[in-house]
Structures are given as C-alpha cells and as structure tokens.
Amino acid sequence: MVTAAAARQADAPKALPAPSGDFYQLVELLNPDEIALVKKVRAYMETTVKPIISKYWSDDAFPFELLPSFKELGIGGLGYEGYGCAGGSQKQFGYVAMELARVDPSICTFFGVHSGLAMGSIYLDGSEEQKQKWLPQMARFEKIGCFGLTEPLIGSGASGGLTTTAKREGDSWILNGQKRWIGNAPWCDLSIIWARDLADNQVKGFIVENKSTPGFSVEKIEHKMALKVVQNGQITLNDVRIPESNRLQGGNSFRDTARVLRMTRYMVGWASTGAQMGAFENTLAYTQSRQQFGKPIASFQLVQDLLAKMLGNLTACQCMMLRLAQLDDEGKLSDHHAALAKAFCTAKARETVAWGRELLGGNGIVADYNVGKFFADVEALYSYEGTYQMQNLIVGKAITGISAFI
C-alpha cells in the first residue's frame, strides 16, 4: 500500500544536476594544495566579482574597488619561483586563469597582462637586480604592469617591423613611437616597452615607469565591443629617456620577446577554455529553468544536442591545455605547441559561446544573463596574442619543415 507521503515524494520534481563544466573531473589531477587555491579563486569570483562585473562590463570600466581583495588571493607571480612570487606548477597557473575567465575574461586578461606578460618579461629577460627590484612589488600588486609590443600599424609583423625605436645615448636610451591595444596601460605603474634598436636593428625591452617619465603618455581606447572591463590604451613615446638600468638585460632580440609570448600565448588557451566553461554553465542553468510549452527547454532534443556540443568543445580544450601545462612543467613546451593550443581553443570558444547565445534567444544579448558578454569577449581572445592564421603558420612550419611566412 502506497502512503500519502510516499505518493507526494514520487510526484515531487526531480532535483536537476548542478551545472558543471568539469565533465571529466580534471581538477582531481591537481594536488590538494593546488585544488584548495583553485577553490579559493572560484569562491572569490563567484561571491565578489560575479555580482558586480556585468555593470562594469556595460560601462567600459575597471572595478578598482576589487584590487585590495584581489591581492589577498596570493596569485601574483603564479608559476615563478622566488622574488616573492606565488610559484607553483603551470597546471595550477592554468586552472587559476580558467577560473578567472569562467566568470569574466577581462579579469583574467588583467591578471595575464600583469602577472604573465609584464612580470614574465622581467622574470625571463631581466637581470638579477631588476628581478629583485620589481618582481616582489608586482607579486604583491603594489605595482601593476603592462606589455607594449603591438603598434597602431604593426601586429603580426612585430618580429621584424617594429616602428618604435630605441637609440643609445651614453647611459640612457631614447624611445620614440607608439603602442596600441595595451591592456592595463591607462592606469598601471610600469610598462614593458619593446623597441627596435637603431644601432643593430634588434628588438630590445625596456621598463618604463609611467607616471614619472617625461614624454610618456597614454590615451584610453574607447567604445570596445569586447573585453570591456580591461582598460586598453594607446601609448605614445616622445623622446622618452630611459636609463640603461631599466633596459631588460636579457631582452636583446625578438627571440627573447618570443620566450615571454610562448608562455602567455597558451594562457590565452586557458582563458578561452574558461570562457567556454562560464558560457556552458550559465547556458545549462538557463535551459534548466526556462519554461516553454509547459516544460524546461533543457528537455528538448535540439537543446540537449547543442549543450552536448558545447561540453565536447570545452572538455577537448581542457584536456589539450592540461597536456600543454604538463609539457611546460617538464621543460618541453615549444612555440608550435603553444600556437596550436591558442588557435584551437579560441576557435572552439567562438563556436561554443555562439551556441550558448543561441540557446538563450533574445536574452543571449543581455549582459545580465552572463552569456552574451562571453560571446563578445571571445572575439578579442581569438585575435590577440597572435591571430588564428599566424598560429597555424607556426604549426605548419613545425610539421612540414617549410616556412610559409613572407
């Protein structure tokens, strides 16, 4: 005999699974300390950043109010040993980047430009004195950095065609030129500027202290449609005088610049994977609650088909990025490895977030639903740190032994 309580329990709605973008439980490949940090970052992004970030995204503004609490995460200099840096494996660095991008790719980009590009330039190409001077302050987020390579007319051709110049005068260098699309530039404390030495035509790196250097100015780039929280700037250098002590002592050719780009390029793979993760989880939650024809749209075959495709892209990218981080930790990472991951993951991200926007219908273009901004932000990830086509040419050269570059 069925009791009334049992009947009510049988009729009760079945609890739906919570959205999770880690279908293969890859986070379990981290050690306990790494998992604890990833969980700490996730909790921070969910409780502190997510409730406010859509407004900042819509307003083209950076949430400076978050900087004090962001510093407390202790993630400055992840992957770097010593100099007050957080250290740890590249797997951990990647998972943290993915968690940041899972809520907002702009916050991940802010972090990547500062901790990856700016700190990475000093860590890889700086002298011991420069590392001791700058990295501890940057690891504590007391000094924020940016990375000035791209120019108004020079993007993919940076290896051989920089128009920003450096001229040696005694114990100083005179820098002239412009840089464009430089994240953090409108407000940060120091810029890593790459310029062509007029004496030997080689690319060299310089640390420019923004707020105290005459001839250095920045104009914020307005009206962006992607990564709107990150403040990008156009830097102008007009007879900027830099002491020899601020020249990166190990940054003497584009090959040295490329060492930094190799590391940060594949971080874009993690960021685009995190964007897919956020888009998938928000889309799945929406389809579970959105009613149409008297039932959740998640019950429809065509909806489930797109959700499965989104998850497939996401999981493939997670597995690729995990293996790439392992190669980096083993000292086996090459330019072509990073290039393939950057190209593949950003291309799949475009596809994944487009399906998410489609499943939300009209709500997919409203920032408050936490899918539309991924749809826009991924367009920037697809292009920056080297275009899709340029990455494929790097891979093509590696696998054929023939360069197709001009």
Q: What percentage of amino acids are in beta strands?
A: 5-15%
Q: What is the CATH C-level name of the largest domain?
A: Mainly Alpha
End-to-end C-alpha gap: 81 Å
Give the tally of structural domains. Answer: 3
DSSP helical segment count: 12
Largest sheet: 7 strands, mixed
Return residue spans where pLDDT drops below 50 for at least 5 consecutive residues: none
CATH T-level fold name of the largest domain:
Butyryl-CoA Dehydrogenase, subunit A, domain 3
Mean pLDDT: 92
What general outline do the C-alpha atoms trace? globular
Structural class: alpha+beta
CATH architecture of the largest domain: Up-down Bundle
By CATH's scheme, which homologous superfamily of the largest domain applies? Butyryl-CoA Dehydrogenase, subunit A, domain 3
Q: Helical residue percent?
A: 40-55%
Walk me through the topology:
Elements: H1 4-11, H2 32-58, H3 67-71, H4 90-103, H5 105-125, H6 128-139, E1 145-148, H7 158-161, E2 165-169, E3 172-183, E4 190-197, E5 203-209, E6 216-220, E7 232-243, H8 254-289, E8 291-292, E9 295-296, H9 301-329, H10 335-359, H11 372-383, H12 388-400
Parallel strand pairs: 1-4, 2-4
Antiparallel strand pairs: 2-3, 3-7, 4-5, 6-7, 8-9
Q: What do these coordinates show?
A:
The chain is α+β, with helices and mostly antiparallel strands and 406 residues long. It has 3 domains: 26-139, Acyl-CoA dehydrogenase/oxidase, N-terminal domain (Butyryl-Coa Dehydrogenase, subunit A, domain 1, Orthogonal Bundle), CATH 1.10.540.10; 145-246, Butyryl-CoA Dehydrogenase, subunit A, domain 2 (Beta Barrel), CATH 2.40.110.10; 254-400, Butyryl-CoA Dehydrogenase, subunit A, domain 3 (Up-down Bundle), CATH 1.20.140. It contains 12 helices and 9 strands. It has helices at 4-11, 32-58, 67-71, 90-103, 105-125, 128-139, 158-161, 254-289, 301-329, 335-359, 372-383, 388-400; strands at 145-148, 165-169, 172-183, 190-197, 203-209, 216-220, 232-243, 291-292, 295-296. Strands 1, 2, 3, 4, 5, 6 and 7 form a 7-stranded mixed sheet that branches. Strands 8-9 form a two-stranded antiparallel sheet. A hairpin with a 5-residue loop joins strand 4 (190-197) and strand 5 (203-209). Helix 10 (335-359) crosses helix 12. It is globular. The model has no long low-confidence stretch (mean pLDDT 92).
